[in-house]
Structures are given as structure tokens and as C-alpha cells.
Amino acid sequence: MLLDTYGRVATDLRVSLTDRCNLRCTYCMPEEGLAWLARPDVLTDDEIVRLVRIAVTELGVTDVRFTGGEPLVRPGVTGIVERCAALVPRPRLSLTTNGIGLGRTAAGLRAAGLDRVNVSLDTLRPEVFRTLTRRDRHADVLAGLAAAAAAGLAPVKVNAVLMRGVNDTEAPDLLRWALDEGYELRFIEQMPLDAQHGWQRAGMVTAEEILAALRTRFDLVPEGGTARGSAPAERWVVDGGPGRVGVIASVTRPFCRACDRTRLTADGQVRNCLFAREESDLRGALRAGASDAQLAELWRTAMRGKKAGSGLDDPEFLQPDRPMSAIGG
Questions:
Q1: Residue 7 domain flag
Q2: Domain with 227 in it
């Protein structure tokens, strides 16, 4: 198992397939983009599948989510999914995407074994989408969502980040749209993971503000009435059901005590926390000829160093050097 010193067991693996992206979201990276990883530094398809296999067969991982950057810009993503779906035991496979490439890939990904998708969409207004992402691709995201639903990548989840003064009035409209379309909407507090290091707590739209806005038009009842455990989203039943809405309050309501995640970056580094400032290199050992057992032990060692919490509540908190696009969600 991937057990840390606080008794938490990591069963959920986030695998970044690339640090590259075809959007330039203002809360993630500058308009000119970033210096991408050099091609030789990025794990090959075979290396990714091998490390996922070790995680699943040797370390108890049951859920694998492919992330980026934007994972659909990586050639061979469908093949990676297919090979991971063939593992025994078979992990649950999901993918987080900006949705632009889903229109042409959703059916193939489903056939390869992908179970579901999370699609990022922060606004229903094309002009606001252009402001937030610096690209005119709003219609492509909507088409990608429809393709995912048609392919059976269900439940289709939509992730939205609200930015003060930009799209912070859209929460009720986004929820109404998601309920009508049959998508599950999740609002995510903006996290200090932007490449510009411009995040400020005072500028963040909080979970409480989001819920207050939603309650102006909807009746929300906590789902189940119990703690969310390791799930990142707190969920509410909307207007008596069956619709649900989630809020991921990583900043104001962190879920570190029950965290079950481990992360693998596109260049083969293990991160035991999204906000960690240290990484453990698997790529170097893998390319030096390490056995599966040796790689598994390196991974276990990396997880034993996991801290009790993210440190977001510490006045001395420092952002990771890597932005979200280079870490993987």
C-alpha cells in the first residue's frame, strides 16, 4: 500500500500526460504560455503504462485519472487508456480535460475503456470564455460535452472556477444549465497554483459565497448528511433531487485528513500532495533499469513523507514552484 505516517492510504492516482495546453486560462498561465517540458524529459507511453501497472498491481491503486496540461493534446492518449484498462485488477479510469478535443475523441476513448470525464467550463458566455481562456473555443467545449454524454462517459462532470469581477455572478445560471443538460456541476475554489503566483486569498470566491449565490434560486440539502471522507467535493441535493451540485473548497474547507491521492507528473516525478514543494524522481530510476519492486519501494518512500496538511492555512505558506499545468490536477 501507499501508506503515509498519518495512516492515510493513497488509492487514487492522478497521472499528468503532458504539461502542454491549448488554452491560456488567466488563473493558470500567462498569455504567452510557459516553457514546456523538453520531449526527452516526458515519460513515454510505455513508461506511463508501466508505472500505472505498478501502482495498480503492487501498490493498491484503484482509481486512475489522466490529467495535463490538457491530456487530449498528447498523441497516443487513447492507446494509453486502452492498455491501462486491460490491467488486472482493472482500475477505474477517468480523464480531466478542457473539452476542446472531446468532440473527436470521446467515442474512441469510451471504446478504449475510459469510464468518465471531468470537463472544465467556467462560463456560459462566449465573450467571458474568451476573456478567461484567451481563446475562442466555447462552442467546441459545448460540443465536447455533448459528445462525452453521447459516448456514455457518465456521469459527465463539469468543473467551474469563479473569478471575482469576471464570472462570479454566473453560479445559478451554470447550475440551471447543468441540471437541464444532465451534467453534474462542481465549483472549485481558485487555488494558489497559477504560474504567475498572483493568487490572493482576498480575491478568491469562497465556497460560502458560491453556496449563498446558489441558494438564491435553488433549495440545497447536504447529500447524505455525513462527512465527505476522501471525496474532494461536498455535494448537495438540488430542489429535492435527482440533481446534485458539488463544491470543492480546497482552500477554506480542506480535506487533507482523508486525502487518498498520489500524483505522477508528465516527467515522472511523484508528488504526495498537490501543494508539495518536494518531488521524488521515478523517471531516473526507471530509465536506469530499476525493477518493478524497486520502483514500488521508491513510491512508498515518497508517500511516507507526506505532510499532515497542505499548509494553506499557514501564514508562511509558499506556492509550489510548479503551476497546476505542470503538476496535473
A1: no
A2: 12-327
